[in-house]
Amino acid sequence: MTTGDTLPTAIQREQLIHEIDMALPQTQCTKCGFEGCRPYAQAIVNGEAQINRCPPGGQAGVRTLARLVSQAEIPLDPDRGTPGPLTLAVIDEIHCIGCTLCIQACPVDAIVGANKHMHTVVSDACTGCELCIAPCPVDCITMLPLQPQRYWNDSDATLARQRYHARNQRLVRLEAAKTARPPSAGALVPDLPAALPVQDAKKAAIAAALARARARRTP
Prior knowledge:
With 219 residues, the protein is mainly alpha-helical. Helix content is 46%, strand content 6%. Strand 2 and strand 3 (120-121) form a beta hairpin.
């Protein structure tokens, strides 16, 4: 096959991936089994995934994907989750220990806070993806129905896509800054005995915070 034969095919595949990605709800919830909406779109085009694995998109989303890939519409896979009204992550701020794990897990930077300080969710930015729940060591995050009740729409997807890309760009800048920064003396000699008490102190601080949180939650 010549280059002229393969190039249009590659362009067409990339265009189809883009169209599928644009049709997905951009919650980046990974319920489809892939690390976000675009990887799922790539898997569909590559024949590695069915078009019915996106609960936030619902059956209407399956119908749209079926049209894009010229396939018959199939029922939404119930094993991936159940579509429904929007939910919002809510942090029990009294029990939050400021570990930042939920901040790191949120794909759209909808959680604000700092290490050892209380975190909170920006309600207008939360996609209801639920990715912040599992990392929380003190189980202080719950998903509550959005009030008044409403369903995900194209405007939500546009905002989520913007925030997702902005977060990825922020992480790239942080990684670049980290790479450019000269390593500290401690980083050059991590095995020195003097470094061990520091690590032990960090572990002890985390353990103490968890113990305090559990104690507060015990009736």
